[in-house]
Amino acid sequence: MTAVAPPVAPPETTTGTLRREDTRLLCGQGEYLGDVQRPDLKHIAILRSPLAHARIRDIDVSGALTLPGVIGAFTGAELAADTGTFNHHLEAIPTLRQINWSVLAVDKVRFVGEAVAAVVADSRYIAEDALELIEVDYEELPAVSDVEAALEGDSPQLYEDWGDNVFLYIPGPHGDTETAFANADGVLEEKFTHHRIIGLPLDGHGALGEFDPATGRLVLHASTQIPHFLRTVLAEITGLSEAKIRVVAPDMGGGFGNKVHMVREEALVAVLAMRVRHPVVWKQDRTESLTASVHSRQQVHNVEAAYRNDGRILGLRAEIIADVGSPELYVIGAGPAIVTTAIVPNCYDLQDYAFELRCVATNKAPMGAYRGYGQGQAVFLIERVLDLVGEKLGIDPVEMRRINMIPDEQRPYVTATGAVLDCGSFHDQLSDLLEGADYDAACRRRDEARTEDRLVGVGIAQMVEATAPNIHGLAGQFGVYEMAMLAVQPDGKVNVVVGTKSQGQGHETIFAKAAADELGISPDDVTVSDGDTGVLPYGSGTWGSRSVVMGGGAVIKAARQVRDKMVAIAAGLLDAPADQITVSDGFFRFGEAAIPFAQIASAAYLHTFLLPPGMDPGLSVIVGYDSFNTSPFPDERGKMNVAATYATAAAAAVVEVDPATGVVSVGDLTIVHDCGTVMNQVILDGQIHGAVMQAIGQTFFEELHYDENGQPLTTTLLDYAIPTFGDVVEPRIIHRETPSDLIGGYRGAGEGALIVVPAALAAAVHDALVPLGVPITQANLSPPRLRELLRGHSAA
Amino acid sequence: MKPARFEYVAVESVAEATEALADSEDARVLAGGQSLVPLMNLRLARPSLLVDVNGLGALSGFEARNGTLRFGAMCRHRFLETDPAVRRQAPIVAETAGLIGHVGIRNRGTLGGSIAHADPVAELPALLVALDGNVVASGTTGERTVPAAEFFAGPFMTSLEPAELLTAVEIPAHSEGDGGAFSEFVLRHGDFATAGVAVILHRDEGGACDRLRVAGCGLGPIPMDLSAAGEFLLGESALTDGGADELGRRVAAASDPTGDVHGSGEYRRELAAVLAADAVRRAWGRAGSAGRG
Question: What is the pTM of this model?
Fold first, then answer.
């Protein structure tokens, strides 16, 4: 944290348009993990496996201990003696391999970058020097890095006792696909591929641990999206009670799902803080973040779609293979692939849908969450199927969607997998898209370009997103609910504490507005905090497009409870019936009479003799808020309603392909977006802009490479190309507002554009390549990959 | 991501620098540091001593002498890109320097550092080969001049002796009828080029091409001299689309690229064809823009 004063006063936020936290964050006054300082702070460096697959015969740390400045050096075997292990807390799934793992590898390493030993030293420099003095005796084993090879019978096995590499198998026979296929006029068979990428926060994982042996209390400052979940896990690992552990998540430079996982290093920091009795810090460096945090997306889909000649998709069979890398990650990295299977029907009336999901372990870093959480792959699948079937039948993409879309009058609509869709009209949303994108004119311009031998394409895609999900039984023991604390202080100013955790999304601004609107005061009078388990008993963190839906709902619920008490006080003071008291502009009113908000507050704390007889003093509540409409587990037919509410979006893209270099230029991008009640459009548009940037990145720039032996080849940002501002397009955004039935009418908003835009881009590139007859069935459309595709086609 | 231990000395003369280099086993010269320091942080480079030559003002700037331009090794990329005299007397150097990295990198990175680092995907080594320039190196026993064609020995390897300091780079001065262009493909603005092609040519008073040189980056283990691919254009007065594309095909065929995460060898070859055709078109136009084309 710098001492430089901000150049301007914090912006007014009464309109809800500007982010109140920006002045602090943009002027270098945020406090990120790297800014947290303690006297006598020691630094942790972690020795990581150079091999993709090996047995650990022996580790000798004695050399490291001779280096001046080294406090200690630790192996997995040594720490395992008195620490707990991680597990997935999914005993209810019979087809999941049950595994336990420690804070450091003990017997085996299964990917390059896996943590095998740790050094604590006076500085990170010394700690890294000491790592070079640790000797590990590895017995190298054959490795497998390709997911389809990992399914072969002769593949190396990551866990010998499994007998294969299938970490999780889930069959999902929904409806009657046999009849559907029997009645079909034709069947489309396709294979779709999704490459491995990473949700890459600029500010990586890290933790600073402090242990006070006198009180037995542990404080862990961690850059995490889920501080309370982390506390629960730390209790399991350290043996301390949750009451003795406080997790504080400071300001964060992004999370994107990567930090919805509790990486073993966070627990390692806690364990080492207790061992060495100094405050200790570990901050992930860039190579660690690229090779040893949380990868995402990699899936293979083998799809059969049964269709009628009128364009109706009658049934779908999908074999979904997810490359989960090392499965030793909590919460479980198979979660996104499970969600993929649930979302495939999307906004289409497709009840006869059967899937088989295999999550396969390979010798690569763990795969897990990244903004979109498996839903983008599902949308890609069904949207590609519609376009490819339409192409066979000569039916255009818009018509294909209208033919198959869920009718407006069916609400709620229960999908094949049990999702209870509460969405607005898909037909109207599509009409808004076509109008906003001037779709017909775009198609005409494409046709003209083709006469000049230019490869211009237009593509559309739609999505339904499960927002505020409850994946208790599919991703670990955590649910959908949220908590909030609200306290009106004696001076009438308000503290709000939420169990969500902002990673930069503007939560201070939106939650202040949510509370202020209920209390009839200015948002400037509300101070918002998050990320401290010492203040709020529990919270579910920020992920799954849930914060406005569940956090906002909890804040409103809390504010209403406090307001009701204030109304009762005001009713007593004004000698009026409570149901005739109104609250606005900082006053409680009854007819012409008015009492300032602050006066009620002082009565509650300082002049308690003014309270109605028998009323307890104080104005604070802690509330829990649940949507009560989700399923924690699948039912006996494998169906579950995964989310509290569903958001929708549609996108249209216009692109031009340079066939010589494989470069795709995105000329125009339109997004129609429905997240229910819009709380703050500036912040919402920012979410969409960021998601578009990531969609462009994953489609045209990003790919994590491993060689066939499991060596990572993308270990720095020279190798892993995330787009820069010069590489992105500004979308045209059209908001639709179909309120949900939840408090506030909100639906989630954080991920939709990243779910739908890649499918629209793929559709547009496919359309551009129609003159060459090259179908797009892969999500990776980077210049070298697109050239590879074109080259392969011209050779065939 | 912290470097291993190293010693550091800031020198005040070329002699002091070469002595420091001679006295130490694994000394490295610190110029702009834009490549060396990241490599040190990754512990891929582990010099025992850094010899900081940033204080050697005599290695800055450039001068014209007998038809040759001599650039000090410490010329920053940003200087080469923006200096009016460089832009006038060596426009291809200014164009190429502007392709390197981002402004922050160009503010620090140096001509000598880029040449001595000899990254096969870097622009300036390829340009030096295309220009048929020279490298001037100083050692404890004096100064020697090495033609570019003999300087680059392999990826990140040159014919510099361990105790030699690269002090200057010489290229022919720009003259009437010269035209040059550097075309490269980058995935993102500021990246190292996946591939790049420099074309330097001269057209005589009648407009006929009487000299044509081609070099590439990212197309082989060293900056590749691909000039033989352009011999068929010598004597031609006009460049047809077919001629430019033919040069592209020949450059691609003569290239020897390997694959990495940024593109396969085959992809780089395809890029070479596109880039060479683009570069020769632009260079040809520039050579003729003096009113003789």
Answer: 0.96
